[in-house]
Amino acid sequence: MSQEGNTAGQVEHYNELLERTKQSLILMVDDEPIISDITEAHLQCEGYSRFVAENDSRKALQVLSQHPVDLLLLDLNMPHVNGFEILEAVRENPRYRSLPIIVMTSAADSETKIRALNLGATDFLAKPVDPAELQLRVRNCLAAKVYERQLLYFDSVTYLPNRTYFHERLKQLLVEEPEEEFVLFTLSIDQLKRIQDGVGAEAANEVMRQLAQSLGGVVAQPDISTGAEWVLLAKSGGDEFSCVLRGTSDVGVLRMLANDIKLAVEQNCAVGSHEFYVSASVGVAVYPNHAQDSEELARAAAGASAEAKGEGGNTCRLYTERLGQIARRQLSMDSSLRRALDRHELFLMYQPKVDIARQRITGAEALIRWRTSDGELISPEHFIPLAEETGLIVPIGQWVVTTACFQLRAWEAQGMAKMNMAINVAAAQFFDSRFVDSLQFACNSAKVDPKQITVEMTEGTLVGEDAHLPDTLKRIKAMGAQISIDDFGTGYSSLSYLKRFPLDELKIDRSFIRDLANDESDSAIVQAIISMAHSLGLQVVAEGVEDAEQLKLLGDYGCRKIQGFYFSKPRMGDEFVSFAKRFNMTQGNRQMG
After folding, report:
1. Which run of H or E residues covers position 589?
2. CA-atom Rg of the chain in angstroms
3. What is the pTM of this model?
4. Which residue among 53, 384, 433, 591 sits deepest, i.e. has the most Cβ atoms within 10 Å of its Cβ?
Protein backbone atom coordinates (compact mmCIF):
# COMPACT_ATOMS: atom_id res chain seq x y z
CA MET A 1 0.00 0.00 0.00
CA SER A 2 1.27 3.46 -0.87
CA GLN A 3 1.70 6.13 1.78
CA GLU A 4 -1.30 7.93 0.28
CA GLY A 5 -3.37 4.75 0.51
CA ASN A 6 -2.36 4.20 4.09
CA THR A 7 -3.22 7.81 4.99
CA ALA A 8 -6.62 7.46 3.32
CA GLY A 9 -7.20 4.34 5.38
CA GLN A 10 -6.34 6.19 8.56
CA VAL A 11 -8.72 9.03 7.68
CA GLU A 12 -11.52 6.59 6.92
CA HIS A 13 -10.87 4.80 10.19
CA TYR A 14 -10.89 8.08 12.12
CA ASN A 15 -14.22 9.04 10.52
CA GLU A 16 -15.61 5.69 11.59
CA LEU A 17 -14.48 6.44 15.14
CA LEU A 18 -16.25 9.81 15.05
CA GLU A 19 -19.46 8.15 13.89
CA ARG A 20 -19.09 5.66 16.72
CA THR A 21 -19.12 8.54 19.22
CA LYS A 22 -22.77 9.12 18.29
CA GLN A 23 -23.54 5.97 20.31
CA SER A 24 -21.98 7.45 23.44
CA LEU A 25 -24.04 7.65 26.63
CA ILE A 26 -24.33 11.25 27.85
CA LEU A 27 -25.31 12.04 31.45
CA MET A 28 -26.81 15.50 32.06
CA VAL A 29 -26.91 16.76 35.64
CA ASP A 30 -28.88 20.00 35.97
CA ASP A 31 -31.52 21.09 38.47
CA GLU A 32 -33.60 22.68 35.66
CA PRO A 33 -35.36 19.95 33.58
CA ILE A 34 -36.00 22.39 30.75
CA ILE A 35 -32.24 22.91 30.31
CA SER A 36 -31.69 19.16 30.05
CA ASP A 37 -34.52 18.84 27.52
CA ILE A 38 -33.12 21.65 25.36
CA THR A 39 -29.59 20.23 25.54
CA GLU A 40 -30.82 16.79 24.54
CA ALA A 41 -32.78 18.22 21.60
CA HIS A 42 -29.73 20.11 20.31
CA LEU A 43 -27.58 16.97 20.47
CA GLN A 44 -30.23 14.77 18.85
CA CYS A 45 -30.05 17.06 15.84
CA GLU A 46 -26.37 16.10 15.56
CA GLY A 47 -27.14 12.36 15.74
CA TYR A 48 -26.66 11.57 19.43
CA SER A 49 -29.37 9.31 20.81
CA ARG A 50 -28.40 7.97 24.25
CA PHE A 51 -29.03 10.23 27.25
CA VAL A 52 -29.59 10.05 30.98
CA ALA A 53 -30.90 13.15 32.78
CA GLU A 54 -30.76 13.74 36.53
CA ASN A 55 -32.27 16.88 38.07
CA ASP A 56 -31.52 16.06 41.71
CA SER A 57 -27.80 16.72 42.24
CA ARG A 58 -27.83 14.51 45.35
CA LYS A 59 -28.40 11.46 43.12
CA ALA A 60 -25.74 12.35 40.50
CA LEU A 61 -23.02 10.01 41.78
CA GLN A 62 -25.48 7.14 42.22
CA VAL A 63 -26.73 7.53 38.64
CA LEU A 64 -23.16 7.74 37.38
CA SER A 65 -22.27 4.45 39.09
CA GLN A 66 -25.29 2.71 37.53
CA HIS A 67 -24.55 3.56 33.89
CA PRO A 68 -21.49 3.22 31.58
CA VAL A 69 -21.39 6.97 30.98
CA ASP A 70 -19.10 8.34 28.22
CA LEU A 71 -19.60 12.08 28.89
CA LEU A 72 -20.90 14.17 31.81
CA LEU A 73 -22.59 17.54 31.23
CA LEU A 74 -22.53 19.17 34.66
CA ASP A 75 -24.22 22.34 35.89
CA LEU A 76 -22.24 24.17 38.57
CA ASN A 77 -24.93 26.19 40.33
CA MET A 78 -27.37 23.68 41.92
CA PRO A 79 -29.05 23.40 45.34
CA HIS A 80 -28.17 20.68 47.90
CA VAL A 81 -24.94 19.53 46.14
CA ASN A 82 -23.27 21.95 43.76
CA GLY A 83 -21.29 21.06 40.64
CA PHE A 84 -17.92 21.68 42.28
CA GLU A 85 -18.64 19.04 44.92
CA ILE A 86 -19.77 16.53 42.30
CA LEU A 87 -16.73 17.29 40.15
CA GLU A 88 -14.36 16.75 43.06
CA ALA A 89 -16.04 13.48 44.08
CA VAL A 90 -15.97 12.15 40.52
CA ARG A 91 -12.26 12.85 40.05
CA GLU A 92 -11.39 11.22 43.37
CA ASN A 93 -12.79 7.94 42.05
CA PRO A 94 -10.13 6.15 39.88
CA ARG A 95 -12.91 4.71 37.77
CA TYR A 96 -13.87 8.17 36.46
CA ARG A 97 -10.53 9.95 36.21
CA SER A 98 -10.56 9.85 32.40
CA LEU A 99 -14.30 10.64 32.03
CA PRO A 100 -14.79 13.83 29.95
CA ILE A 101 -16.72 16.46 31.95
CA ILE A 102 -18.12 19.61 30.36
CA VAL A 103 -19.06 22.20 32.95
CA MET A 104 -22.14 24.35 32.14
CA THR A 105 -22.39 27.67 33.95
CA SER A 106 -23.81 31.16 33.59
CA ALA A 107 -20.91 32.56 35.62
CA ALA A 108 -18.53 34.67 33.56
CA ASP A 109 -15.80 35.26 36.16
CA SER A 110 -12.40 33.62 35.66
CA GLU A 111 -12.22 32.38 39.28
CA THR A 112 -15.11 29.98 38.68
CA LYS A 113 -13.47 28.53 35.56
CA ILE A 114 -10.07 28.22 37.19
CA ARG A 115 -11.56 26.43 40.20
CA ALA A 116 -13.42 23.98 37.93
CA LEU A 117 -10.28 23.32 35.89
CA ASN A 118 -8.29 22.64 39.04
CA LEU A 119 -10.92 20.11 40.09
CA GLY A 120 -10.69 18.29 36.75
CA ALA A 121 -13.16 19.84 34.32
CA THR A 122 -12.45 19.01 30.66
CA ASP A 123 -14.22 21.95 29.01
CA PHE A 124 -16.74 24.81 29.58
CA LEU A 125 -20.05 25.87 28.11
CA ALA A 126 -21.67 29.20 28.89
CA LYS A 127 -25.40 29.39 29.61
CA PRO A 128 -27.59 29.99 27.73
CA VAL A 129 -26.11 27.28 25.53
CA ASP A 130 -25.39 27.96 21.87
CA PRO A 131 -26.40 24.82 19.87
CA ALA A 132 -23.38 24.90 17.53
CA GLU A 133 -21.00 25.46 20.44
CA LEU A 134 -22.61 22.61 22.38
CA GLN A 135 -22.31 20.20 19.47
CA LEU A 136 -18.67 21.17 18.84
CA ARG A 137 -17.58 20.78 22.48
CA VAL A 138 -19.37 17.43 22.87
CA ARG A 139 -17.91 16.13 19.63
CA ASN A 140 -14.36 17.17 20.56
CA CYS A 141 -14.53 15.65 24.04
CA LEU A 142 -15.92 12.34 22.81
CA ALA A 143 -13.52 12.19 19.87
CA ALA A 144 -10.59 12.74 22.22
CA LYS A 145 -11.85 9.97 24.48
CA VAL A 146 -12.32 7.57 21.57
CA TYR A 147 -8.89 8.44 20.19
CA GLU A 148 -7.29 7.90 23.59
CA ARG A 149 -8.99 4.52 23.82
CA GLN A 150 -7.86 3.77 20.27
CA LEU A 151 -4.23 4.42 21.18
CA LEU A 152 -4.50 2.33 24.33
CA TYR A 153 -6.46 -0.62 23.05
CA PHE A 154 -6.11 -0.83 19.27
CA ASP A 155 -3.24 -1.68 16.93
CA SER A 156 -2.20 1.25 14.75
CA VAL A 157 -1.38 -0.98 11.76
CA THR A 158 -4.41 -3.31 11.46
CA TYR A 159 -6.89 -1.32 13.62
CA LEU A 160 -7.70 -4.58 15.41
CA PRO A 161 -7.76 -4.80 19.21
CA ASN A 162 -4.18 -4.97 20.47
CA ARG A 163 -2.40 -7.15 23.00
CA THR A 164 -3.58 -5.09 25.98
CA TYR A 165 -7.22 -5.25 24.94
CA PHE A 166 -6.93 -8.95 24.07
CA HIS A 167 -5.67 -9.97 27.50
CA GLU A 168 -8.17 -7.75 29.35
CA ARG A 169 -11.11 -9.00 27.26
CA LEU A 170 -10.09 -12.66 27.49
CA LYS A 171 -9.83 -12.36 31.27
CA GLN A 172 -13.23 -10.67 31.39
CA LEU A 173 -14.87 -13.40 29.30
CA LEU A 174 -13.58 -16.19 31.53
CA VAL A 175 -14.60 -14.36 34.72
CA GLU A 176 -18.10 -13.45 33.49
CA GLU A 177 -18.85 -16.86 31.92
CA PRO A 178 -16.85 -19.42 33.97
CA GLU A 179 -19.09 -22.33 32.94
CA GLU A 180 -18.74 -21.63 29.22
CA GLU A 181 -16.20 -23.26 26.90
CA PHE A 182 -13.80 -20.88 25.17
CA VAL A 183 -11.25 -21.78 22.51
CA LEU A 184 -8.19 -19.65 21.81
CA PHE A 185 -6.52 -19.83 18.39
CA THR A 186 -3.06 -18.20 18.30
CA LEU A 187 -1.53 -17.61 14.86
CA SER A 188 2.15 -16.83 14.37
CA ILE A 189 2.93 -15.58 10.85
CA ASP A 190 5.82 -17.73 9.61
CA GLN A 191 7.48 -15.35 7.17
CA LEU A 192 6.95 -11.94 8.77
CA LYS A 193 10.43 -11.44 10.24
CA ARG A 194 12.01 -12.43 6.94
CA ILE A 195 9.82 -9.93 5.08
CA GLN A 196 10.65 -7.20 7.58
CA ASP A 197 14.38 -7.90 7.49
CA GLY A 198 14.51 -8.26 3.73
CA VAL A 199 12.18 -5.54 2.45
CA GLY A 200 11.31 -3.32 5.39
CA ALA A 201 8.85 -2.64 8.18
CA GLU A 202 6.20 -0.99 6.00
CA ALA A 203 5.98 -4.04 3.73
CA ALA A 204 5.55 -6.25 6.79
CA ASN A 205 2.85 -3.89 8.07
CA GLU A 206 0.96 -4.07 4.79
CA VAL A 207 1.10 -7.88 4.91
CA MET A 208 -0.40 -7.80 8.40
CA ARG A 209 -3.14 -5.43 7.21
CA GLN A 210 -4.08 -7.82 4.41
CA LEU A 211 -4.07 -10.80 6.75
CA ALA A 212 -6.25 -8.94 9.27
CA GLN A 213 -8.88 -8.44 6.55
CA SER A 214 -8.77 -12.11 5.59
CA LEU A 215 -9.13 -13.26 9.19
CA GLY A 216 -11.95 -10.78 9.74
CA GLY A 217 -13.86 -12.52 6.96
CA VAL A 218 -13.48 -15.88 8.72
CA VAL A 219 -14.51 -14.82 12.22
CA ALA A 220 -17.48 -12.86 10.90
CA GLN A 221 -19.19 -16.19 10.16
CA PRO A 222 -20.62 -18.18 13.12
CA ASP A 223 -20.48 -21.96 13.07
CA ILE A 224 -24.18 -22.65 12.48
CA SER A 225 -23.85 -26.42 12.89
CA THR A 226 -22.62 -26.21 16.50
CA GLY A 227 -23.89 -22.83 17.65
CA ALA A 228 -20.32 -21.72 18.40
CA GLU A 229 -19.53 -18.07 17.78
CA TRP A 230 -16.41 -15.99 17.41
CA VAL A 231 -16.18 -13.33 20.13
CA LEU A 232 -12.78 -11.72 19.57
CA LEU A 233 -10.12 -11.16 16.91
CA ALA A 234 -6.98 -9.29 17.99
CA LYS A 235 -3.43 -8.55 16.91
CA SER A 236 -1.85 -9.94 20.05
CA GLY A 237 1.82 -9.56 19.08
CA GLY A 238 4.21 -8.26 16.45
CA ASP A 239 3.70 -11.30 14.19
CA GLU A 240 0.70 -12.78 15.98
CA PHE A 241 -3.09 -12.81 15.78
CA SER A 242 -5.47 -14.34 18.32
CA CYS A 243 -9.07 -15.48 17.79
CA VAL A 244 -11.47 -16.51 20.57
CA LEU A 245 -14.40 -18.87 19.99
CA ARG A 246 -17.26 -19.49 22.43
CA GLY A 247 -19.41 -22.59 22.59
CA THR A 248 -17.61 -25.80 21.61
CA SER A 249 -14.60 -27.97 22.42
CA ASP A 250 -15.31 -30.68 19.85
CA VAL A 251 -11.90 -31.65 18.46
CA GLY A 252 -13.24 -32.26 14.97
CA VAL A 253 -14.84 -28.82 14.83
CA LEU A 254 -11.71 -27.18 16.20
CA ARG A 255 -9.48 -28.85 13.61
CA MET A 256 -11.84 -27.69 10.85
CA LEU A 257 -11.89 -24.11 12.14
CA ALA A 258 -8.12 -24.07 12.66
CA ASN A 259 -7.69 -25.19 9.07
CA ASP A 260 -10.07 -22.44 7.89
CA ILE A 261 -7.95 -19.89 9.74
CA LYS A 262 -4.75 -21.32 8.31
CA LEU A 263 -6.16 -21.18 4.78
CA ALA A 264 -7.26 -17.57 5.29
CA VAL A 265 -3.66 -16.64 6.04
CA GLU A 266 -2.03 -18.93 3.48
CA GLN A 267 -1.88 -16.65 0.45
CA ASN A 268 0.30 -14.49 -1.74
CA CYS A 269 0.39 -10.91 -0.46
CA ALA A 270 1.23 -8.24 -3.04
CA VAL A 271 3.04 -5.18 -1.70
CA GLY A 272 4.16 -2.77 -4.40
CA SER A 273 6.43 -4.69 -6.77
CA HIS A 274 6.92 -7.50 -4.27
CA GLU A 275 4.81 -10.63 -3.81
CA PHE A 276 5.18 -12.73 -0.66
CA TYR A 277 3.90 -16.19 0.11
CA VAL A 278 2.61 -16.14 3.67
CA SER A 279 1.54 -18.92 6.02
CA ALA A 280 0.80 -19.34 9.73
CA SER A 281 1.58 -21.68 12.59
CA VAL A 282 -1.70 -22.12 14.48
CA GLY A 283 -1.94 -23.19 18.11
CA VAL A 284 -5.25 -24.13 19.75
CA ALA A 285 -6.10 -24.35 23.46
CA VAL A 286 -9.44 -24.84 25.25
CA TYR A 287 -10.82 -23.40 28.49
CA PRO A 288 -11.36 -25.09 30.92
CA ASN A 289 -9.87 -28.30 29.47
CA HIS A 290 -6.32 -26.98 29.10
CA ALA A 291 -6.25 -23.96 31.40
CA GLN A 292 -8.01 -22.49 34.42
CA ASP A 293 -7.50 -18.79 33.71
CA SER A 294 -6.80 -16.41 30.84
CA GLU A 295 -3.02 -16.22 31.31
CA GLU A 296 -2.69 -19.99 31.38
CA LEU A 297 -4.92 -20.28 28.31
CA ALA A 298 -2.79 -17.74 26.41
CA ARG A 299 0.40 -19.61 27.32
CA ALA A 300 -1.12 -22.92 26.23
CA ALA A 301 -2.17 -21.62 22.80
CA ALA A 302 1.19 -19.87 22.31
CA GLY A 303 3.00 -23.11 23.18
CA ALA A 304 0.96 -25.04 20.63
CA SER A 305 1.69 -22.36 18.02
CA ALA A 306 5.42 -22.57 18.79
CA GLU A 307 5.23 -26.34 18.38
CA ALA A 308 3.62 -25.89 14.96
CA LYS A 309 6.33 -23.43 13.92
CA GLY A 310 9.05 -25.77 15.18
CA GLU A 311 7.71 -28.45 12.87
CA GLY A 312 8.26 -26.23 9.84
CA GLY A 313 5.25 -23.92 10.09
CA ASN A 314 2.07 -23.74 8.00
CA THR A 315 0.33 -26.25 10.24
CA CYS A 316 -2.00 -26.47 13.26
CA ARG A 317 -1.39 -28.00 16.69
CA LEU A 318 -3.80 -28.62 19.56
CA TYR A 319 -2.39 -28.11 23.06
CA THR A 320 -1.41 -31.30 24.89
CA GLU A 321 0.01 -32.01 28.32
CA ARG A 322 3.33 -32.78 26.64
CA LEU A 323 3.41 -29.20 25.37
CA GLY A 324 2.67 -28.03 28.90
CA GLN A 325 5.66 -29.97 30.15
CA ILE A 326 7.82 -28.39 27.44
CA ALA A 327 6.59 -24.91 28.40
CA ARG A 328 7.37 -25.54 32.07
CA ARG A 329 10.78 -26.85 31.08
CA GLN A 330 11.39 -23.69 29.03
CA LEU A 331 10.44 -21.56 32.03
CA SER A 332 12.81 -23.53 34.22
CA MET A 333 15.54 -23.26 31.57
CA ASP A 334 15.08 -19.48 31.44
CA SER A 335 15.62 -19.23 35.18
CA SER A 336 18.66 -21.54 35.05
CA LEU A 337 20.22 -19.75 32.08
CA ARG A 338 20.19 -16.46 33.99
CA ARG A 339 22.48 -18.07 36.57
CA ALA A 340 24.61 -20.15 34.17
CA LEU A 341 27.35 -17.54 33.72
CA ASP A 342 27.78 -16.98 37.44
CA ARG A 343 27.86 -20.72 38.06
CA HIS A 344 30.48 -21.27 35.31
CA GLU A 345 28.19 -23.75 33.55
CA LEU A 346 28.89 -22.35 30.07
CA PHE A 347 32.02 -23.43 28.23
CA LEU A 348 33.51 -23.31 24.74
CA MET A 349 34.56 -26.05 22.37
CA TYR A 350 36.55 -25.46 19.21
CA GLN A 351 36.08 -27.03 15.78
CA PRO A 352 39.14 -26.94 13.51
CA LYS A 353 39.07 -24.98 10.28
CA VAL A 354 41.28 -26.75 7.69
CA ASP A 355 43.04 -25.16 4.73
CA ILE A 356 42.99 -28.09 2.28
CA ALA A 357 45.35 -26.34 -0.13
CA ARG A 358 48.03 -26.07 2.58
CA GLN A 359 46.82 -29.24 4.31
CA ARG A 360 46.94 -27.61 7.72
CA ILE A 361 44.63 -26.50 10.53
CA THR A 362 44.78 -22.73 10.40
CA GLY A 363 41.94 -21.73 12.66
CA ALA A 364 38.98 -22.72 14.78
CA GLU A 365 35.37 -21.79 15.38
CA ALA A 366 34.37 -21.20 19.00
CA LEU A 367 31.15 -23.07 19.84
CA ILE A 368 29.28 -22.49 23.08
CA ARG A 369 27.99 -25.35 25.23
CA TRP A 370 25.99 -25.51 28.46
CA ARG A 371 26.27 -28.19 31.12
CA THR A 372 23.90 -27.53 34.01
CA SER A 373 24.80 -28.03 37.66
CA ASP A 374 23.09 -31.43 37.62
CA GLY A 375 25.21 -32.57 34.65
CA GLU A 376 22.64 -32.17 31.85
CA LEU A 377 24.15 -31.05 28.54
CA ILE A 378 21.74 -28.63 26.78
CA SER A 379 22.05 -28.08 23.04
CA PRO A 380 22.71 -24.54 21.77
CA GLU A 381 19.69 -25.04 19.49
CA HIS A 382 17.56 -24.90 22.64
CA PHE A 383 19.20 -22.25 24.79
CA ILE A 384 20.53 -19.74 22.22
CA PRO A 385 17.01 -18.78 20.95
CA LEU A 386 15.97 -18.42 24.60
CA ALA A 387 18.99 -16.20 25.28
CA GLU A 388 18.09 -14.03 22.27
CA GLU A 389 14.47 -13.76 23.36
CA THR A 390 15.35 -12.72 26.92
CA GLY A 391 18.25 -10.40 26.05
CA LEU A 392 20.79 -12.64 27.80
CA ILE A 393 22.56 -13.13 24.48
CA VAL A 394 24.46 -9.84 24.95
CA PRO A 395 26.28 -10.72 28.22
CA ILE A 396 26.67 -14.34 27.11
CA GLY A 397 28.07 -13.19 23.76
CA GLN A 398 30.56 -10.91 25.48
CA TRP A 399 31.70 -13.82 27.63
CA VAL A 400 32.21 -15.90 24.45
CA VAL A 401 34.31 -13.15 22.83
CA THR A 402 36.51 -12.71 25.91
CA THR A 403 36.95 -16.44 26.53
CA ALA A 404 37.83 -17.15 22.89
CA CYS A 405 40.46 -14.37 22.86
CA PHE A 406 42.12 -15.69 26.00
CA GLN A 407 42.05 -19.21 24.53
CA LEU A 408 44.01 -17.95 21.52
CA ARG A 409 46.57 -16.47 23.88
CA ALA A 410 46.80 -19.73 25.84
CA TRP A 411 47.38 -21.75 22.65
CA GLU A 412 50.26 -19.50 21.66
CA ALA A 413 51.76 -19.93 25.13
CA GLN A 414 51.60 -23.68 24.50
CA GLY A 415 53.72 -23.33 21.38
CA MET A 416 51.07 -23.16 18.67
CA ALA A 417 51.51 -20.83 15.72
CA LYS A 418 49.15 -17.87 15.47
CA MET A 419 45.69 -19.04 14.43
CA ASN A 420 42.41 -17.45 13.46
CA MET A 421 39.43 -17.67 15.80
CA ALA A 422 35.89 -17.45 14.38
CA ILE A 423 33.30 -16.17 16.86
CA ASN A 424 29.54 -16.22 16.25
CA VAL A 425 27.92 -12.88 17.05
CA ALA A 426 24.14 -12.49 17.42
CA ALA A 427 22.18 -9.61 15.88
CA ALA A 428 21.51 -8.11 19.31
CA GLN A 429 25.25 -7.81 19.90
CA PHE A 430 25.81 -5.99 16.61
CA PHE A 431 23.01 -3.58 17.45
CA ASP A 432 24.53 -2.89 20.89
CA SER A 433 26.55 0.32 20.58
CA ARG A 434 29.15 -1.08 23.01
CA PHE A 435 29.97 -4.19 20.99
CA VAL A 436 32.98 -2.95 18.99
CA ASP A 437 34.56 -1.39 22.08
CA SER A 438 34.04 -4.61 24.02
CA LEU A 439 35.62 -6.62 21.19
CA GLN A 440 38.64 -4.34 21.16
CA PHE A 441 38.89 -4.53 24.96
CA ALA A 442 38.84 -8.34 24.86
CA CYS A 443 41.66 -8.41 22.28
CA ASN A 444 43.72 -5.91 24.28
CA SER A 445 43.17 -7.76 27.55
CA ALA A 446 44.22 -11.09 26.04
CA LYS A 447 47.07 -9.47 24.04
CA VAL A 448 45.62 -10.91 20.83
CA ASP A 449 46.00 -9.27 17.44
CA PRO A 450 42.46 -8.42 16.16
CA LYS A 451 43.58 -9.76 12.77
CA GLN A 452 43.29 -13.21 14.34
CA ILE A 453 39.55 -12.72 14.94
CA THR A 454 36.78 -13.47 12.46
CA VAL A 455 33.33 -12.20 13.43
CA GLU A 456 30.60 -14.47 12.06
CA MET A 457 27.11 -13.08 11.45
CA THR A 458 23.95 -14.38 9.77
CA GLU A 459 22.41 -13.06 6.57
CA GLY A 460 19.38 -11.96 8.58
CA THR A 461 21.54 -9.62 10.64
CA LEU A 462 23.24 -8.22 7.57
CA VAL A 463 20.10 -7.31 5.66
CA GLY A 464 18.27 -5.94 8.70
CA GLU A 465 17.17 -2.34 8.95
CA ASP A 466 19.48 -1.21 11.75
CA ALA A 467 20.93 2.15 10.71
CA HIS A 468 24.09 1.69 12.77
CA LEU A 469 25.12 -1.65 11.24
CA PRO A 470 27.26 -0.26 8.36
CA ASP A 471 29.22 1.88 10.82
CA THR A 472 29.63 -1.08 13.18
CA LEU A 473 31.05 -3.23 10.39
CA LYS A 474 33.44 -0.49 9.32
CA ARG A 475 34.72 -0.16 12.87
CA ILE A 476 35.25 -3.92 13.09
CA LYS A 477 37.25 -3.82 9.86
CA ALA A 478 39.24 -0.81 11.07
CA MET A 479 40.35 -2.90 14.06
CA GLY A 480 41.75 -5.47 11.66
CA ALA A 481 39.20 -8.22 12.36
CA GLN A 482 37.53 -10.13 9.52
CA ILE A 483 33.80 -10.48 8.86
CA SER A 484 32.16 -13.71 7.74
CA ILE A 485 28.59 -14.59 6.70
CA ASP A 486 27.55 -17.83 8.40
CA ASP A 487 25.08 -20.37 6.94
CA PHE A 488 25.25 -18.60 3.59
CA GLY A 489 22.64 -19.52 0.98
CA THR A 490 19.69 -20.28 3.24
CA GLY A 491 18.11 -16.88 3.69
CA TYR A 492 17.77 -14.13 1.09
CA SER A 493 17.49 -13.75 -2.63
CA SER A 494 18.94 -10.25 -2.86
CA LEU A 495 22.74 -10.39 -2.77
CA SER A 496 23.45 -6.69 -3.16
CA TYR A 497 24.75 -6.59 0.40
CA LEU A 498 27.79 -8.58 -0.71
CA LYS A 499 28.96 -5.45 -2.52
CA ARG A 500 27.75 -2.90 0.02
CA PHE A 501 29.41 -4.27 3.15
CA PRO A 502 33.12 -4.94 3.94
CA LEU A 503 32.95 -8.73 4.00
CA ASP A 504 35.85 -11.21 3.92
CA GLU A 505 34.30 -14.67 3.92
CA LEU A 506 31.23 -16.76 3.09
CA LYS A 507 30.49 -20.02 4.92
CA ILE A 508 28.41 -22.38 2.79
CA ASP A 509 25.61 -23.86 4.86
CA ARG A 510 25.93 -27.55 5.66
CA SER A 511 22.52 -28.28 4.10
CA PHE A 512 24.10 -27.84 0.64
CA ILE A 513 27.07 -30.07 1.52
CA ARG A 514 25.09 -33.01 2.94
CA ASP A 515 23.97 -34.41 -0.47
CA LEU A 516 26.64 -32.77 -2.57
CA ALA A 517 27.68 -35.99 -4.27
CA ASN A 518 24.13 -37.06 -5.14
CA ASP A 519 22.14 -33.87 -5.67
CA GLU A 520 22.82 -31.92 -8.87
CA SER A 521 21.00 -28.85 -7.52
CA ASP A 522 23.19 -28.72 -4.41
CA SER A 523 26.27 -29.19 -6.56
CA ALA A 524 25.25 -26.33 -8.86
CA ILE A 525 24.47 -24.03 -5.90
CA VAL A 526 27.81 -24.73 -4.21
CA GLN A 527 29.76 -24.13 -7.40
CA ALA A 528 27.86 -20.89 -8.01
CA ILE A 529 28.54 -19.65 -4.46
CA ILE A 530 32.26 -20.44 -4.75
CA SER A 531 32.54 -18.77 -8.15
CA MET A 532 30.60 -15.70 -7.02
CA ALA A 533 32.64 -15.36 -3.81
CA HIS A 534 35.95 -15.60 -5.63
CA SER A 535 34.84 -13.02 -8.20
CA LEU A 536 34.12 -10.65 -5.28
CA GLY A 537 37.44 -11.39 -3.62
CA LEU A 538 35.86 -13.33 -0.74
CA GLN A 539 37.15 -16.48 0.90
CA VAL A 540 34.88 -19.54 1.11
CA VAL A 541 34.49 -22.07 3.90
CA ALA A 542 32.39 -25.23 3.53
CA GLU A 543 30.70 -26.42 6.72
CA GLY A 544 29.57 -29.94 7.54
CA VAL A 545 32.11 -31.94 5.50
CA GLU A 546 31.72 -35.56 6.58
CA ASP A 547 33.33 -37.76 3.93
CA ALA A 548 36.14 -37.92 1.42
CA GLU A 549 33.86 -37.61 -1.60
CA GLN A 550 32.50 -34.28 -0.39
CA LEU A 551 36.07 -33.13 0.27
CA LYS A 552 37.24 -34.04 -3.22
CA LEU A 553 34.32 -32.32 -4.94
CA LEU A 554 34.82 -29.16 -2.92
CA GLY A 555 38.51 -29.16 -3.80
CA ASP A 556 37.61 -29.59 -7.47
CA TYR A 557 35.21 -26.66 -7.20
CA GLY A 558 37.96 -24.41 -5.81
CA CYS A 559 36.92 -24.31 -2.13
CA ARG A 560 40.05 -24.07 0.04
CA LYS A 561 38.76 -24.08 3.60
CA ILE A 562 36.72 -26.80 5.26
CA GLN A 563 35.02 -27.58 8.56
CA GLY A 564 33.34 -30.82 9.53
CA PHE A 565 33.42 -34.17 11.30
CA TYR A 566 35.54 -35.65 8.50
CA PHE A 567 38.46 -33.85 10.13
CA SER A 568 37.34 -33.38 13.69
CA LYS A 569 34.41 -32.90 16.02
CA PRO A 570 34.49 -29.79 18.27
CA ARG A 571 37.14 -30.20 20.99
CA MET A 572 37.98 -28.70 24.36
CA GLY A 573 40.78 -26.13 24.40
CA ASP A 574 43.63 -28.34 25.66
CA GLU A 575 42.55 -31.26 23.48
CA PHE A 576 42.47 -28.95 20.45
CA VAL A 577 46.17 -28.09 20.94
CA SER A 578 47.38 -31.68 20.86
CA PHE A 579 45.08 -32.59 17.97
CA ALA A 580 46.10 -29.59 15.86
CA LYS A 581 49.81 -30.21 16.42
CA ARG A 582 49.43 -33.87 15.59
CA PHE A 583 47.26 -33.18 12.53
CA ASN A 584 49.60 -30.58 11.07
CA MET A 585 52.63 -32.78 11.74
CA THR A 586 51.20 -36.00 10.30
CA GLN A 587 49.60 -34.37 7.29
CA GLY A 588 52.86 -32.81 6.09
CA ASN A 589 52.63 -32.64 2.34
CA ARG A 590 50.57 -35.82 2.13
CA GLN A 591 47.42 -35.57 0.06
CA MET A 592 44.36 -35.55 2.36
CA GLY A 593 41.37 -37.69 1.63
Report:
1. none
2. 32
3. 0.53
4. 384
